[in-house]
Design brief:
The chain folds into two domains: 34 residues; 40 residues. 48% of the residues lie in helices and 14% in strands. The chain is built from three helices and four strands; from the N terminus they run H-H-E-E-E-E-H. The strands form two sheets. The protein has a two-stranded antiparallel ribbon. Strands 3-4 form a two-stranded antiparallel sheet. The mean pLDDT is 85. It binds zinc ion.
């Protein structure tokens, strides 16, 4: 009976240590990866570069821009404006 008591005690200690270790690990991960509700420290990584149409001066994302002009250095909002210029 005494042996069983020790066995239970050892299991409880091991479980407590595992729980403590997991809690410490969670805290470390939280420090490395802040929760999403916190303000993003790198907004530029998500914001796309905005370019200005050379014809109508409208701003648009660079991925949607149409490049035209003699050497392709002009930026336009649409193919129609690239042709018009
Ligand atoms: Zn335009």
């Amino acid at each position: 009976m005494n042996l069983l008591m020790w066995l239970v005690l050892v299991i409880l200690v091991v479980l407590a240590l595992k729980k403590k270790a997991r809690s410490t690990l969670d805290q470390a991960q939280t420090r490395q990866n802040p929760p999403p509700e916190q303000p993003d420290s790198r907004p530029a990584a998500k914001a796309e570069t905005m370019v200005c149409c050379a014809h109508c001066q409208m701003y648009l994302p660079a991925s949607e821009a149409v490049y035209g002009g003699e050497r392709g250095e002009q930026v336009y909002c649409s193919q129609a404006h690239a042709d018009h210029a």
